Amino acid sequence: MENEIESLKSSSQKEIAETKSLKDLEALKLAYFGAKGKVALLTKRLGTLSLAEKADFGKKVNELKNYINQTLNTKYQTLNTSTAKQEWLDVTAPGIKPEIGHLHLVTQAIEEITRIFERIGFTRVRYPEIDWEWYAFESLNMPKNHPARDDFETFFIDAPTSLQYGKMVLSPHTSSGQVREMERLNHKPPIRMINIAKCYRPNWDVSHIPMFHQFEGLVVDEGINITHLKGVMDYFAKNFFGPKRETRLRPFHFQFTEPSFEVDINCGVCLGKGKLPDGSTCRLCKEGWMELGGSGMVHPNVLKAGKIDSNKYTGFAFGWGVERTFMMKSGTKLDDIRLLYSNDIRFLEQF
Ligand code: DAH
Known about the structure:
Blueprint: H1 2-18, H2 22-33, H3 38-44, H4 51-87, H5 105-118, E1 123-125, E2 130-132, H6 133-136, E3 156-162, E4 166-170, H7 177-184, E5 191-200, E6 211-221, H8 226-241, E7 247-254, E8 257-266, E9 289-298, H9 300-305, E10 314-321, H10 322-330, H11 345-348
Parallel strand pairs: 1-5
Antiparallel strand pairs: 2-4, 3-4, 5-6, 6-10, 7-8, 8-9, 9-10
Bound molecules: 3,4-dihydroxyphenylalanine (DAH).
The site of 3,4-dihydroxyphenylalanine (DAH) has 12 residues, from strand 9 and strand 10.
């Protein structure tokens, strides 16, 4: 009989453990504790025992009952809570927000620049990132061995040299698209190009990366003069940076423009004053203006390279860095251009 108690104990434990629903658990309870259940059958045996045996047996049956009861209860709790979990829906709980990414900051800047120039009739183009030396230099009035080429520290490609076009280079500036655009339009102005593309120069520090972007404007038509250049610069400054911004042209030298200028924009913090209302020096610009990039009136030799009559047509051009221009706009005072390309989500998602 002792054995029976033991085996009932272990079989009940097994059966309860295997039960998967409250309904089955209910049926199991009946199978043990019902009027004709397994425990009842065991209790019936009591009558056949001696007084001493009765006491001992009765005690063990009671222990068994308690054991089964407790196991049933524990199982009941488990099944009950997991069923509740399945069926219960908290309609007030906030939903799970899918993570939404966005275009890279530089791509966003390129889109915005494109839209701004499109509104005044410029066509967005892109020209090869690997180009001939001729388009990057000769066509831009920089003959072979001209020292001005040094300013455009250049990656040369290990490829056969062309008699006509020279070596192959990783395009060091978007100006190499100027004569290509003249060719694309069959040397027939009007030209209103905005060339936005990757450029390469072997530099790596807080304000330089070996791969960066420039946007290059080129306008060629009859009667184009410096006031058109200045007007377009101001139009861009106001649209990209805000209505209170304007530009100034500062004399400079480029081989492919004559005259040439560097374009400055009035500082967004002190608006060109260099001083704050309390009389202290503006910490961002220190003198009221910040340099944006180069520009000028297209040199007649460049028009000639593009087979355009420089007696009939004139033009202006400008070329600025996209990353630099974006960094000046963002107002975050980014102090390292390389952050833009470190692919650190924690940085990128702040914008
Ligand atoms: N290509 C020049 C550079 O990378 C920038 C530049 C200056 C472009 C004057 C122009 C220009 O179109 O007219 O430094």
